[in-house]
Amino acid sequence: xxxxxxxxxxxKAVVGIIGMGYVGLPLARTFWEAxxxxxxxxxxxxxxxxxxxxxxxxxxxPSEGIAEMRQGDRFAATTDFARLAETDAILICVPTPLTPxxxxxxxxxxxxxxQLQPHLKKGQLVVLESTTYPGTTRDVLRPIxxxxxxxxxxxxxxxxxxxxEDPGNPNFTTRTIPKVVGGFDETSGALxxxxxxxxxxxxxxxxxxxVAEATKVTENIYRAVNIALVxxxxxxxxxxxxxxxxxxxxxxxxxxGFGRRENKTFFTxxxxxxxxxxxxxxxxxxxxxxxxxxxxxxxxxAGEINTSMPDFVVQALMVALNDRGRALKGAKVLVLGLAYxxxxxxxxxxPSIALIEKLRALGAEVAYNDPYIPVTPRQRExxxxxxxxxxxxxxxxxxxxxxxxxxxxxxxxxxxxxHSRLVIDTRNATAGVKEGRERIVKA
Length: 443
What we know:
Radius of gyration: 24 Å
Strand content: 5-15%
CATH topology of the largest domain: Rossmann fold
CATH superfamily of the largest domain: NAD(P)-binding Rossmann-like Domain
CATH class of the largest domain: Alpha Beta
Number of domains: 2
Shape: globular
Number of helices: 14
């Protein structure tokens, strides 16, 4: 332990990060800025080649920053997992999605562990950052790493520290977001705390890996449940002719006992959940809870409400078209925004995907515009095969309805409304639009 701790303190430790995506790449940048030598690993050669050439493929990480990292010899990206033997600490940042039956899909983690194990050496620290259910690091990853002669806690160190990235959020970075750390044993925890403490502002040590794992799923379940609540309120108040966004804005003026915009605890409705965490992580805990005979009714109900929101939006769109004498079948629909939240290029689990697929299935001619996603990438379960249309008066004039799914700040909503026949607003993006409100339907 003393040797690794000293190497960390002197910035001589080599940090290997597996997975150069929305979590791993910012983490690599953070360790590089702190003076460490960093090796980035990914099975996608297109990513490693781009990084080697000093190019970024993530909007909020500029290529200039990658090019700067490539100067000198303190950062390299590779697909060669044999180079893990060069590292002192290995951080795992790979996807943990759901299967089609909404059960944990740990195949990426298992495959990573199997690729790592032959190159594991004595004294190394391994930290899992991928979000998962309590017990994964101990019961799934550890046995894979121990298939050789090395044993966790004796020959190598093991810990869990959940990623807390918020892509596109200008107020928080990897360095400024507190880092929760739980170790397999006291030594592992202390080393992991020392490693992260060398590059982030605050480390929050907890008593075990399981507590750290539970911390992350709890954070995202909290958000999922509260979003489900305001989504249900949107449906109820909509039937009553009450604007839910006006209600929430008024309720948010209470200085206690209710979420407020200024302290970022304010929840708003939308067309469904998106992103790599909130639509997925709650189901990791509900799956694990069955092992203990616990029915997670509250969490699953929230999931049902949130996953039903695209259907609610499609129904509202159909009714709005019908009121104007137009059937959905054959109608031209332009979806504004594919990203799961404003001003990012990340469309993982975006509700826009479900909206497009549902509208297509009902016979609509669907197109989209997103300034950050010019072409839809092939995903694990979706391949929309679409290109972003230019947002022009001519484009809007051809549409029967414009569906605002992601409220990018780049959009001029007054201009969009002025040149559209019908606008379905799922985000209250048109709140400030004065002219043409008869063409706006909130959903």
